[in-house]
Design a protein that fits this description.
about 170 residues; alpha+beta; Endonuclease, Chain A; seven-stranded mixed beta sheet; two-stranded antiparallel sheet; 6 helices; 9 strands; about 30% helix; about 25% strand; globular
Length: about 170
């Protein structure tokens, strides 16, 4: 288990580990905005990395609590395989407040950071949020968080949810 703070979250999880995913990637976040990452000599939307992963056969599951910001939605339209591929799944649930990134069931980052530039430490030192989280490869932690996220994804809490009347896209 490794504690990651501020920009170390972005550098370690998003820039180094996430693009190395080979089988499946699960991202759970409350807020989601346009986040850019290095790719070669340029910075690209994280959506381009997700699109590349899908094209390479990686299953990507993105779960979030509210509609993404306008820049994210504009960028999303630039990657049609995120819409057309069965390997990319997106779930919106207004009760999600968890922040987790699970890569191939071998590593997970669990912390306070949303999938935003300020949250993940991509912004400058005087603009970003103060965030913390843990990177783990502990099998029991991974199994427990993955089982719980699967329950969310499959809508096991959906039918009894008392926020269903305000949910824009009920899972079940």
């Amino acid at each position: 288990m490794q504690l990651l703070l501020n920009e170390a979250i972005y550098r370690t999880v998003i820039v180094e580990l996430l693009p190395q995913t080979r089988k499946f990637l699960w991202i759970v976040t409350a807020d989601i905005k346009d986040l850019h990452v290095p790719k070669g000599r340029r910075f690209v939307p994280l959506l381009e990395i997700l699109s590349d992963l899908v094209e390479a056969g990686v299953s990507v599951r993105l779960m979030h609590a509210k509609e993404p910001g306008p820049r994210f939605r504009e960028d999303f339209d630039k990657y049609p395989n995120l819409v057309s591929s069965d390997l990319f799944e997106r779930i919106l649930c207004p009760r999600i407040h968890t922040k987790a990134v699970i890569m191939d069931g071998r590593q997970a980052f669990i912390g306070s950071a949303n999938l935003t530039g300020a949250g993940l430490g991509a912004k400058g030192a005087h603009k970003r949020n103060f965030e913390a989280g843990f990177l783990t490869s502990d099998a029991s932690h991974l199994r427990e968080i993955m089982d719980w996220i699967d329950q969310l994804y499959l809508g096991e809490f959906c039918l009894k949810c008392q926020r269903r009347s305000v949910c824009p896209d009920p899972i079940a």
